[in-house]
Amino acid sequence: MTPSRPAQPWPELSFATLRPTIETLQLWTQVVGKVRLAQTPWLNHSWHVTLYVSARGLATGLIPHGPVSFQMEFDFVAGALVIRVSDGGERRIALSAGSVAAFYAEVLGALDALGAPVLIDPLPNEVADPVPFPEDHRPRPYDAAVARDYWRALVQVERVLSRFRTRFIGKCSPVHLFWGSFDIAVTRFSGRRAPLHPGGVPHLPDAVTREAYSHEVSSAGFWPGGGGVDEPCFYAYAYPTPAGFAEAAVSPPAARFDPALGEFLLPYAAVRAAPDPDAALLAFLQSTYAAAADLAHWDRVALECGEGRPRRPRPVG
Q1: Residue-wise pLDDT tens digits, 240-251
Q2: What Å distances lie between residue 171 and 29, 151, 287, CA to CA?
Q3: Domain limits of the chain?
Q4: What is the pLDDT of residue 316?
């Protein structure tokens, strides 16, 4: 049976409703993300540790393990973490309320049973008062319907961020989700080195932050709220922040600059309510990037291109 498509592609997201499930899911994704971190050679800007939006949830992509590889996917349709090994092995772990310690033990146990044992750093990153996974026995809530709505929103966000990504011919990141900060992002690079980042991100080694921001960037994405922002929001920032960025005129009118975060924010609710949500989000992405690039004197002529179209190679001179 084929599931019916939702009437509203951009689901309603409430921070109060999202928060309990998202806090649990963030810790679960850290367990899975740290498996990828432990097995995958370091790639520039930590791109080797991220998760990707899939047709059923969030997936790691292939993770090498000696002669085999495996993939881990949060399947929000079936309500399970699915682990598949290239030799045909498979295990499923139900996604349900419970402790992080129990989830951690199930994941590592499943990998052992599949012949792909992995040891990971058990301390969460970028969260307040982190508790090592095997010691976190606190009951954690999880609402499968809330997780599915969040994933459905990510499907739309990923689609629009991917459109925006095609407008840039310079170095650009994939559209991917960082499980530390729990945001989905796409990042453009000017090609120039950046000043050494001061570090100081809570529970994240300064070496990781400094490598991530070794070059000038304009970055944008989406996260479900937190850190004093009590609503799901799109964001955009630049590193280093060029003079005048906070005062730049950006679109749409609902966008604002948050001095505490040092970035522009656009509420998800404003995009969802727009007559054309794609156009509203693209306007935010383009106007905040243009402000950063112009103020920092990027070579926009060399770095930009027309938006990609299916089956149409880019023209070259």
Answers
A1: 999 999 999 999
A2: 27, 27, 19
A3: 15-135, 149-303
A4: 76
